TrEMBL record, chain A:
Biased segments, Basic and acidic residues type: 139-149
Molecular functions per Gene Ontology: heme binding; metal ion binding; oxidoreductase activity
Subunit organization: Component of the phagocyte NADPH oxidase core complex/cytochrome b558 complex, composed of CYBB (heavy chain (beta)) and CYBA (light chain (alpha)). Component of the phagocyte NADPH oxidase complex composed of an obligatory core heterodimer formed by the membrane proteins CYBA and CYBB and the cytosolic regulatory subunits NCF1/p47-phox, NCF2/p67-phox, NCF4/p40-phox and the small GTPase RAC1 or RAC2. Interacts with NCF1 (via SH3 domain). Interacts with SH3PXD2A. Interacts with DUOX1, DUOX2 and TPO. Interacts with NOX4; this interaction mediates superoxide generation.
Transmembrane segments: 12-30, 36-54, 92-122
Species of the source: Cyprinus carpio (Common carp)
Function: Subunit of NADPH oxidase complexes that is required for the NADPH oxidase activity that generates, in various cell types, superoxide from molecular oxygen utilizing NADPH as an electron donor. Subunit of the phagocyte NADPH oxidase complex that mediates the transfer of electrons from cytosolic NADPH to O2 to produce the superoxide anion (O2(-)). In the activated complex, electrons are first transferred from NADPH to flavin adenine dinucleotide (FAD) and subsequently transferred via two heme molecules to molecular oxygen, producing superoxide through an outer-sphere reaction.
Keyword field: Cell membrane, Electron transport, Heme, Iron, Membrane, Metal-binding, NADP, Oxidoreductase, Transmembrane, Transmembrane helix, Transport
Principal location listed in the UniProt entry: membrane
UniProt name for this protein: Cytochrome b-245 light chain
TrEMBL record, chain B:
Signal peptide: none
A single Gene Ontology CC term: monoatomic ion channel complex
Protein name (record): NADPH oxidase 2
Electron transport in keyword set: yes
Species per Swiss-Prot/TrEMBL record: Cyprinus carpio (Common carp)
Length: 186, 565
């Protein structure tokens, strides 16, 4: 199936699972169902999974697309070092978190979804993937001249204006406008 | 202010009708469960019953709709028939994938409402079995049907269980879990990030829809939604008898025990039609793919572009259509879409394939791309072709004035258009409705010009011979260049032919100023309908769409058509 990075799909799946887990937990607690303690755990686990999974990892190959506003999450998740970078740890964590959800109907769906996400992460880990933070590239500061504005870095390849004047009778076929007006006799 | 309605009107109308039907179904089925028959069901469940049944009806409707936009052959057929009546309606069919996604989101929403309501239902059913108190109506109701196990109300028949176990032991519960899981997996693998990067994961996971539909049809088979039977309501009126539940069935009362039964499954009536249509669609695709296709020529173009010329018996196409190609020796299951770059007037069909992923790389190797000696015809791989399928480019010749905008490889459908133009005007000299074509090609690198530049060169030559240089006005924009190249261009600016393409019209640098272009065209052609056709990235589509709307004034109308795969 090509060089797929399984972690990307695992990330989407676990984010969805976290939301479902939390929603099921909210329903269980709000409705005061039997076993609402498991539902309360579901809310906590679901929210935690969402926070952990929100920042996308940098892709091994290709351009990475960030989620909106993920930078602060990236910094937090990155701070835990190997605990969050390693996908075996994540697979095991998700598997452990999903188990209590199986004891109550409202959180069962979250449990199963998180379990599937855990399996996909296991596959990702076996394929040697790991989490990389997407950090902004530090660009070299542009030096602006004091009184002179910098010319454009990559100007359109045109000769200087003096050489660029098209003759007046060829104005219609010119591919660009004259920078200075011309008359026929020039 | 431009004519927004011309471009978007029909789409908005369709969406409003669809939303309206959803709202109507929701409200109608919500109220349908507030009647006398379900009085006792509501004693246990409250309004959660209606909250579960209303989205179920909407789900039936939307699951019926979701298969229809992906029946490509059916849509092509409809498009062909409709476009004689209304071009706008035919164009609406191009937005099938957008509609498919909208319906999918609606299914996800209604699934969520349905599940949450059922969580309450399960809990309340369980409660009424556990509150063992014969003065408690829900408990009394739950004991009805204990003898014959047929006339019961509460699907939870014992108090020695819990909702989770009940869910996994009822047909409705089990199928519900399975189809919800299938739906979630389909949705997560359809996210844009996954779809654009790993199409195969998206495509294979999407086939879980088969599991989804089977489970959906079986979901109601257990008849778990129960209400009083009609005969029972005649003799036992809930309004009068509900408070006298301790006397039901006893001698002398006029309240016999109520009898309950389940509703027959309804979903199959909604989805069986589209399912049959979809099966036919897949059969048509399979049949067409079995027709023999012969590769007659393989050309390797510079910027990792592979051109395949093929012949297939009985193949008919129109300009700018696309086909799906499969190569059994590479993958039995993968079909990939490619725009046809040949014109209908030619005797072969050709595609230009950019080598970007595994499948295209394998195709390149299979066609002998890395070998330098000439290949024998029998060594070329067998391919299958399904299609052609129509897209917006078919409409090009229905406009008097046409703007074609292609970004990078997106210029391929227009290769077909331009070739067809050449054949029509120059060889067959037909009276073509289209009077003027403005062609814009935006490209980030010079190498990509090569194969297309040849086509433009021959067109240029032919037009000069026939004294028709006015017909086609093309503008090539190089959007990125290196300093070294820039120096070369600077020196060559006065040359007769363009240094990059060898064409008479000079290559421009940077991005076009669309405002100027649109204004110029509007002033040149007052009072006409100008068709704007784009094959390129979404950002460009948004920009052009806005330009079309803002430059459509009294008289000149810019109609925007976008292609997408």
């Amino acid at each position: 199936m090509g060089k797929i990075e399984w972690a990307m799909w695992a990330n989407e799946q676990s984010l969805a699972a976290g939301l479902i887990y939390a929603t099921g937990g909210i329903v269980g607690v709000a409705g005061q169902f039997r076993g609402w303690q498991f539902a309360a755990f579901g809310i906590a686990a679901g929210v935690f999974v969402c926070l952990l999974e929100y920042p996308r990892s940098k892709r091994g190959k290709g351009t990475s697309v960030e989620r909106t506003g993920q930078y602060c999450f990236t910094v937090c998740v990155n701070a835990f070092g190997p605990l969050t970078r390693n996908y075996y740890v994540r697979a095991f964590l998700h598997a452990a978190l999903c188990v209590p959800g199986g004891f109550m109907l409202a959180t069962v769906l979250g449990c199963v979804c998180l379990g599937i996400a855990s399996l996909i992460y296991l596959s990702a880990a076996i394929h040697g993937e790991h989490w990389e933070p997407i950090l902004p590239r530090t660009e070299p500061p542009k030096r602006v001249g004091d009184s002179i504005k910098e010319p454009p870095q990559n100007p359109p390849p045109r000769p200087p204006p003096e050489l660029r004047r098209k003759k007046a009778d060829k104005l219609e076929t010119a591919a660009y406008d004259n920078p200075m007006s011309v008359t026929v006799n020039e | 202010m431009g004519n927004f309605a011309a471009n978007e009107g029909l789409s908005i109308f369709v969406i409003l009708v669809w939303l309206g039907i959803n709202v109507f179904l929701f409200v109608h089925f919500y109220l349908a469960f507030l009647v006398e028959r379900y009085y006792y069901t509501r004693v246990i469940l409250g309004h959660a019953l209606s909250w579960a049944r209303a989205p179920a009806a909407c789900l039936n409707f939307n699951c019926m709709l979701i298969l229809l936009p992906v029946c490509r052959n059916l849509l092509s057929f409809l498009r062909g028939s409709i476009q004689y009546c209304s071009r706008t309606a035919a164009r609406q069919l191009d937005r099938n994938l957008t509609f498919h996604k909208l319906v999918a989101y609606m299914i996800a929403l209604h699934t969520a409402i349905h599940i949450i309501a059922h969580l309450f239902n399960f809990e309340r059913f369980m409660d009424s079995q556990l509150m063992i108190n014969s003065s408690y109506l829900p408990y009394v109701l739950s004991q009805i049907g204990n003898n014959d196990n047929r006339s019961y109300l509460n699907p939870i028949r014992t108090n020695e269980t819990n909702p989770t176990i009940v869910m996994f032991t009822t047909i409705a519960g089990l199928t519900g879990v399975v189809i919800t899981l299938a739906l979630i997996l389909i949705i997560t693998s359809s996210m844009e990030v996954i779809r654009r990067s790993y199409f195969e994961v998206f495509w294979f996971t999407h086939h879980l829809f088969i599991v989804f539909f089977i489970g959906l049809v079986l979901h109601g088979v257990g008849r778990i939604v129960r209400g009083q039977t009609i005969e029972s309501v005649k003799v036992h009126k809930p309004d009068e008898c509900h408070s006298r539940f301790e006397d039901w069935g006893k001698n002398g009362t006029d309240c016999p025990e109520p009898v309950f039964a389940g509703n027959p499954p309804m979903t199959w009536k909604w989805v069986v039609g589209p399912m049959i249509l979809y099966v036919c669609e897949r059969l048509v695709r399979f049949y067409r793919s079995q027709q023999k296709v012969v590769i007659t020529k393989v050309v390797m173009h510079p910027s990792k572009t592979l051109e395949l010329q093929m012949k297939k018996k009985g193949f008919k196409m129109e300009v700018g259509q696309y086909v799906f190609m499969q190569c059994p020796s590479i993958s039995q299951l993968e079909w990939h879409p490619f725009t046809l770059t040949s014109a209908p007037e030619e005797d072969h069909l050709s595609v230009h394939i950019r080598i970007v992923g595994d499948w295209t790389q394998a195709l390149y190797t299979a066609c002998g791309g890395d070998k330098t000696v000439v290949q024998d015809a029998w060594t070329l791989p067998k391919v299958a072709v399904d299609g052609p399928f129509g897209t917006a480019s078919e409409d090009v010749f229905r406009y008097e004035v046409v703007m074609l905008v292609g970004a990078g490889i997106g210029v391929t459908p227009f290769a077909s258009v331009l070739k067809s133009v050449w054949y029509k005007h120059v060889q067959e000299n037909k009276n073509v409705f289209t009077k003027k074509i403005y062609f814009y090609w935006l490209c980030p690198e010079t190498q990509a010009f090569e194969w297309f530049a040849d086509l433009l060169q021959s067109l240029e030559r032919q037009m000069m011979e026939k004294d028709m240089s006015d017909f086609l006005s093309y503008n090539i924009y190089l959007t990125r260049w290196k300093d070294a190249e820039a120096a070369h261009f600077r020196v060559q600016y006065e040359a007769e032919d363009d240094p990059i393409t060898g064409l008479k019209q000079k290559t421009r640098y940077g991005k076009p100023n669309w405002d100027n272009e649109f204004s110029a065209i509007a002033t040149q052609h007052p009072g006409s309908k100008v068709g704007v056709f784009l094959c390129g990235p979404t950002a460009l589509a948004t920009a052009l769409g806005k330009q079309c709307i803002s430059h459509t004034e009294s008289g000149t109308e810019f109609i925007f058509n976008k292609e997408n795969f």
